[in-house]
UniProtKB/TrEMBL annotation:
Keywords in alphabetical order: Cell membrane, Glycosyltransferase, Membrane, Transferase, Transmembrane, Transmembrane helix
GO cellular component: plasma membrane
Compartments it resides in: Cell membrane
Residues passing through the membrane, by range: 12-30, 78-97, 127-145, 157-185, 197-218, 253-274, 295-317, 353-378
Classification lineage: Bacteria, Pseudomonadati, Pseudomonadota, Alphaproteobacteria, Hyphomicrobiales
GO terms, molecular function: pentosyltransferase activity
Domain Glycosyltransferase RgtA/B/C/D-like as annotated: residue spans: 55-216
Domain of life of the native organism: Bacteria
Protein name: 4-amino-4-deoxy-L-arabinose transferase-like glycosyltransferase
Length: 507
C-alpha cells in the first residue's frame, strides 16, 4: 500500500473514497432515528430560504437540493455529509501539494485530519454546519496557497468562492479570513498579492455569494445571533470570574483540538524524538521554516489571540472546541512544513503513520455503530435509539384519515416525522416556512406530536396550545400516549410520546 500511495497519487483518493463509503453504509445500517442536526436538516429541507435560524444557510441549501433529488431519507443526509468530508480531505491534500515537496508528507498531512476528533468522529456523529465549515476552510486553504504561489484570475475567483461560502457556512469563518489577511501582510513575499487588481475578483465573487443571506442577517440580527451569543456568554459571570472561565474554556478548546493530533503524530515522527538526546533535532525543527510555515503559523496564532481578546474585552466565557476547526485544520500542514524545512523527513514516517490512519479508519465506524447497537448492554442510550418510527406510526394510526399537517414540538422530532411520513408537511410553532391550511376537517385533520424528554405523561407545551387556539373551532378529537422500548435497548426502558388529532366539525 505504501508504494502504491507514493507512485499513484490517485490511490490516496481511492482510499478516502472507500472509507467514506463505509461511513455511509454504517449510517444506513443504524436505526432510522435522526440525531439533532440530522432532524433539523430534514425539517428545513421542506423549503428554501436565505436564512433559517442562528446558523447560516450554506449547508441547508445543499441539503435541500439533495433531498429534492433523493428524497427525505438517511441516504440524503449521509451522502451529502460524506461527500463534503471527502472533498475536504482531498482539498487539504491538494493544498499541501502546493507547498510540500515530499509526497509522503502530503499524504501524512491529508490523513492527519483523521486524528482530529471534531473532523473524524464528531462530524460523523452529528454535525452539519461544522462539516460545511471544514469544507470551506479546506477550499480556502487550497485557493489561498494556489493564489500566493501561482496567481491567476481563476485562483483569485476561487478564493472568493471559498470566502463567500465560508461566511454563509459559519459566522466564525470571518476570523480565519481576517487572520489570513494579517498573516499575508506580515510576509513580504506574499504582500504584493493583496495589491493585485485580481483581488477585485475575489471581493466581487465573495460579495455576490454573501449578499442574499447578509440582507436577511441584518433584518433578523437578534434571531441570527442570540443563540450563539447565549452559548458564548454567561450573565451570571462578571469581571474576573468571566475572564477566568473564558480563558479556561479557550485553553481547554485549544488542547482538545490540537493535543490528539500532536500526540498521534509522535508515532510517525518517533525517529525525530528518539534521536533528540544526541542531536536535538526538535530544536532544529522549531527554528526551521519557510514563508509557508510562517504564514500558517501566524494564522493559527492570530485566531487564538483574537479569541483571547474576545474573552478579555467581549465578555465571552465559553468556547467550544469545534469552533476552532478552521484554525487547527492547518496544524498538520504546519508541522509537516517545519519537518521538511528542517530536513527531518525519513522513509519510515509514512509507514508508521499509515498504521495510525488505518486504525482510526476502523475504530471510528466501529464506535459509531457499537455505541447505538450496544446501548442496551450498558444502559446508556443515544438519540438514534429513540423509537421515533414506531411512535409516529402509532400516532398516524389514531387519525381517521391521513393528516394534512403535523405540528410538533422540536426540530429533531420534526425531522424524524419527515423521515417516516415524507408525504405530510411538518410545522412548528415558530420559524416555519410551511404554510398551514385555513381549516382542518375530518378528511384533513391536524396531527400533533410532542414529548418531554421521553418522560411519561408529557404535557402539551403551551406554545403548541397557543398555536392551536389560533384556529377557532379546532378541537381535539382524540388524545393518546405511547411508551415504547428503546431500539437495541432493555425491554423495560421506555420512551414516551404524546399525540392528538384535531379538526373542526363546524362548517
Amino acid at each position: 500500500m505504501i508504494s502504491t500511495l507514493r507512485q499513484k497519487p490517485a490511490s490516496l483518493f481511492l482510499l478516502l473514497g472507500a472509507y467514506f463509503i463505509v461511513q455511509v453504509l454504517v449510517r444506513l445500517a443504524l436505526p432510522a432515528s435522526l440525531e439533532l442536526d440530522e432532524g433539523q436538516q430534514l425539517y428545513y429541507a421542506q423549503w428554501l430560504s436565505v436564512g433559517y435560524d442562528s446558523q447560516p444557510p450554506f449547508y441547508n441549501w445543499i441539503q435541500h437540493g439533495v433531498v429534492e433529488l433523493l428524497g427525505p431519507n438517511r441516504l440524503s443526509l449521509a451522502l451529502l455529509k460524506n461527500l463534503m468530508l471527502f472533498a475536504s480531505y482531498g482539498l487539504v491534500a491538494l493544498a499541501a501539494a502546493q507547498v510540500l515537496k515530499s509526497r509522503d508528507l502530503v499524504i501524512i498531512t491529508c490523513l492527519s485530519l483523521l486524528t482530529m476528533p471534531q473532523v473524524s468522529f464528531e462530524a460523523q456523529r452529528d454535525l452539519t454546519h461544522t462539516v460545511a465549515l471544514i469544507f470551506c476552510t479546506a477550499l480556502f486553504a487550497f485557493a489561498m496557497l494556489r493564489t500566493l504561489k501561482a496567481p491567476s484570475a481563476w485562483s483569485y475567483a476561487l478564493t472568493g468562492v471559498a470566502i463567500g461560502c465560508g461566511f454563509i457556512s459559519k459566522y466564525n469563518f470571518v476570523l480565519l479570513v481576517a487572520a489570513a489577511l494579517l498573516a499575508i501582510l506580515a510576509e513580504p513575499a506574499f504582500r504584493r498579492r493583496l495589491f493585485d487588481w485580481r483581488l477585485l475578483l475575489t471581493t466581487a465573487v465573495a460579495i455576490a455569494i454573501v449578499t442574499p443571506h447578509a440582507l436577511w442577517f441584518f433584518q433578523h440580527m437578534q434571531e441570527a445571533t442570540s443563540n450563539t451569543l447565549g452559548k458564548m456568554t454567561d450573565d451570571d459571570l462578571t469581571g474576573m470570574a468571566q475572564i477566568v472561565a473564558g480563558m479556561k474554556s479557550l485553553s481547554t478548546a485549544v488542547i482538545a483540538s490540537a493535543a490528539p493530533t500532536l500526540l498521534l503524530l509522535l508515532i510517525p515522527f518517533a525517529d525525530i524524538v528518539a534521536s533528540s538526546r544526541r542531536t536535538h533535532p526538535q530544536a532544529s525543527m522549531l527554528r526551521s521554516g519557510n514563508e509557508w510555515s510562517r504564514l500558517i503559523g501566524r494564522m493559527m496564532l492570530i485566531v487564538i489571540v483574537a479569541l483571547a481578546l474576545m474573552v478579555l474585552f467581549g465578555g465571552v466565557s465559553a468556547i467550544k472546541d469545534r469552533w476552532l476547526a478552521p484554525c487547527f485544520l492547518l496544524l498538520p500542514l504546519y508541522l509537516c512544513l517545519k519537518i521538511e524545512a528542517a530536513g527531518l523527513e525519513t522513509p519510515g514516517q509514512l509507514r508508521r503513520f499509515m498504521a495510525v490512519a488505518l486504525a482510526i479508519m476502523v475504530i471510528v465506524p466501529a464506535v459509531l455503530y457499537g455505541r447505538v447497537v450496544g446501548a442496551g448492554i450498558i444502559g446508556h442510550y443515544q438519540k438514534q435509539n429513540v423509537p421515533y418510527e414506531q411512535a409516529i406510526q402509532a400516532a398516524l394510526a389514531s387519525s381517521p384519515s391521513r393528516p394534512i399537517l403535523v405540528l410538533t414540538s422540536d426540530q429533531q422530532m420534526a425531522g424524524n416525522i419527515r423521515l417516516h411520513a415524507p408525504d405530510i408537511p411538518v410545522t412548528m410553532t415558530d420559524n416555519s416556512g410551511v404554510a398551514a391550511p385555513a381549516k382542518f376537517d375530518a378528511q384533513h385533520p391536524l396531527l400533533v406530536i410532542w414529548r418531554n424528554f421521553g418522560k411519561p405523561n408529557p404535557p402539551l407545551p403551551q406554545s403548541m396550545k397557543d398555536w392551536i387556539a389560533a384556529y377557532p373551532g379546532l378541537t381535539a378529537q382524540s388524545f393518546g400516549e405511547v411508551a415504547l422500548p428503546f431500539l437495541h435497548g432493555r425491554p423495560h426502558s421506555l420512551y414516551s410520546f404524546g399525540y392528538a388529532v384535531y379538526y373542526s366539525t363546524t362548517p
